Amino acid sequence: MYFSGVSYNNPIMKALFIGGTGTISTAISKRVLEKGWELYLLNRGNRNRELEAAGKAGKLIEIACDIRTEDEAAISGKIKKALADSGTKAFDVVADFIAFTPAHVEKDFKIFSALCKQYFFISSASAYQKPLSSYLITESTPLANPLWQYSRDKIACEDFLMQKYRECGFPVTIVRPSHTYDERSVPLGVHGANGSWQVIKRMLEGKPVIIHGDGTSLWTMTHNSDFARAFTGLMGNIHAIGEAVQITSDESLSWNQIYQAIANALNVELKAVHVSSEFLDEFSGGRYDFRGGLMGDKSNSVVFDNTKLKRLVPGFHARLRFDEGVKLCVAHILKHPELQREDPEFDAWCDKVIAARAKALKMVTDT
Questions:
Q1: Residues paired with 265 in a beta bridge
Q2: Residue 73 lies in a domain
Q3: Distance from the CA of 27 to the CA of which of 81, 180, 325, 352 falls in 20 to 30 A?
Q4: CATH number at residue 337
């Protein structure tokens, strides 16, 4: 085992987050600081300011570093200095929120194998087999996604880390999120490169919006505040070592219900146009990642069995229903113009898809 010389008696958890300011990790970072723990952020420092207010209870230590470009020796030097300054030998938790390929986790293993008591890898529920053999997803559902390289890379990362756990006790915990959202973007099935705003704008202007398939497939949305409560319940949890755990809400919604909830939050009529996922993929010509992100993920019905999470984190349940959460998103986005990133190319593409569908229907009805 790696950590026989490390003391486990420190009452204040010391956590190192690589990244730490994304959709999922911002909420976790804030919760860690609210709990009075010490949070070390290893990143380029571009978005750390919004965590400063949350740092009043805990302690925020920034380590300026780009883990993807700097060499291992330089990174290790910065980390060991931070540990020496805090008077400890290892972090209770290291979580990498920006690891996407085997090369990323292999580098993490080399750097942190003797410097942490628990290492978190953020995988993805999109790694589960497509198509599913059973509608109910548990952590034992096979991992296989032939449609999305992103998911296959996450699977390869999991394989490497679990091999290290079996071979030498590397204390990994694998977390599999599904569709997690925050106040900065409304979660959608079909959108362009600039996120959700253009679809919101179409709704506000009374224009039709595209829903993939017939809109009846089931999906699960999880607000990042709920995700953070579950995640921090796994931090320092000895029962989570060597385990893969999915963190999602228990709420299942059809895509028709999801888009209707968004329209309700905007107080507008939903004008939905249903188009098959395969057609959207072909019509995009590779412009948008519908082969992976849609056909390899969102077009599939998913229902999660979170029994394992609730056993590891007793009392946990997601508190925020989607219709409540999306109202918070819409209100925040409408108040922050910087989040309203227009995408005229995607807007024009939507019009073309809708026109092509109408033309095809006319051809059928005219014959």
A1: none
A2: yes
A3: 81
A4: 3.90.25.10
The token pair at 144 is 């296989």
Q: Please, what is the Cα angle at 195 between 191 and 200, to 5 degrees?
A: 75
Pick the last residue of a domain from 232, 247, 262: 247
Instruction: Look at residue 10 and tell me whether its pLDDT is greater than 80.
Output: no
Continuous H helices in the chain: 23-34, 72-86, 102-112, 149-168, 197-204, 224-234, 255-266, 277-284, 290, 307-312, 322-335, 344-366
The pTM of the full predicted model, rounded to 2 decimals, is 0.93
Q: Are residues 152 and 122 in the same domain?
A: yes
How confident is the model over 255-305, as pLDDT tens digits? 999 999 999 999 999 999 999 999 999 999 888 889 999 999 999 999 999
Q: Is 236 left (phi over 0), alpha (psi -120 to 50) or beta?
A: left
Mean pLDDT score of the chain, rounded to an integer? 93
Question: Cα–chain-centroid distance for residue 5?
Answer: 34
Joined together, the tokens standing for residue 358 give 């109408």
Q: Which domain holds residue 239?
A: 14-182+222-247
Contact yes or no for 216/208 (Cβ under 8 A): no
Whether residues 32 and 165 share a domain: the answer is yes
**Distance from chain centroid for Cα 32:** 18
Asked, for residue 257, whether it belongs to a domain, the answer is yes
The reply to whether 101 and 168 lie within a common domain is yes
Handedness of CA 206, 210, 216, 220 (dihedral sign): negative
